[in-house]
Amino acid sequence: MNIKTIAAILTIASQSLLNAQVSVKVTYEQQNIYPDNYWEKIPQDFRENTKKQLTQPITLNLVNNGEASLIVSETKKLNFPSMQENNPDERNLGINMKLAEVWTHNDFNTNTTTKKVKLDNKSYYRQSPFDNTIYEFDPTVTKKIDSYQCNLAYYVSKKSNDTIKYWYAKEIAIADGPYGPSSIPGLILRYENKYRVIYATKIEYADSKLEIKPLDNKIPILSNDEYLQAKAESRKPKNYVDEDGKRIVKNSVIIK
User: How far lies 141's CA from each of 40, 98, 136, 165, 173, in Å?
Assistant: First the structure.
């Protein structure tokens, strides 16, 4: 992996010099990993095209200006052609799917993380305190990522029985990365678990403070508990009568 670095300050020699750096922009790519048996569930005619599209990297853009940070994914749409033949009376255009958006705002003054989520096609903010995960640090293990000598921080997730790894550059003393601020003392350049890998592809330093838009006051803010309750409600079957008098039942389907 080659990280292209555009730096206003070419050499970061000390913490005080780094603190003079007002803003940093980081581009990441997220590569999702699927087990072999996942593809076996997809009809063979769809399989190769589906595999090609779902394994393409997703771009994430992070901006950190010292007071706040924002990471947003680029909009990505997938198209799966229909296996049915079209006829003069009916055309099946297949399936168009828009991948879920990543939008995470971090406020360093209030130590609050806000994520934009959608429930029933309505946008909400899900708000919670900064991550309080306790990490293990192994100073004996390092990884060279471009010109940065990165150290390893990790923890074992009891939920997924997986070791979550973070490779961070201590010389870039910004506690931020793909999953937001943490107690990891450096910019995260690579994140690994058994389902995905996220890696930095470009770092840009700015000598002026980059603007990060504040939260939209028209979007409701939910606490973590309120979000979980609203999410459960959104997945319940919904019955209604359409304009033609037909009763419609709507169910939510979770695709893993």
Answer: 37, 39, 12, 12, 19
- Answer yes or no: are the C-beta atoms of 182 and 130 closer than 8 Å: yes
Cβ–Cβ < 8 Å for 201, 25: no
pLDDT per residue as tens digits for the range 151-175: 999 999 988 899 999 999 999 989 9
- Check if the beta carbon of residue 146 is closer than 8 Å to that of residue 137: no
- Sequence-separated (6 or more) residues with CB below 8 Å from residue 89: none
Residue corresponding to tokens 């937001």: 180
Query: Cβ contacts of residue 212 below 8 Å, gap of 6+?
Result: 63, 65, 67, 68, 69, 70, 105
* Distance of alpha carbon 118 from alpha carbon 103, whole angstroms: 11
∠ CA 225-230-232 to the nearest 5 degrees? Answer: 100
Check if the beta carbon of residue 23 is closer than 8 Å to that of residue 209. Answer: yes
Single pTM value for the model: 0.78
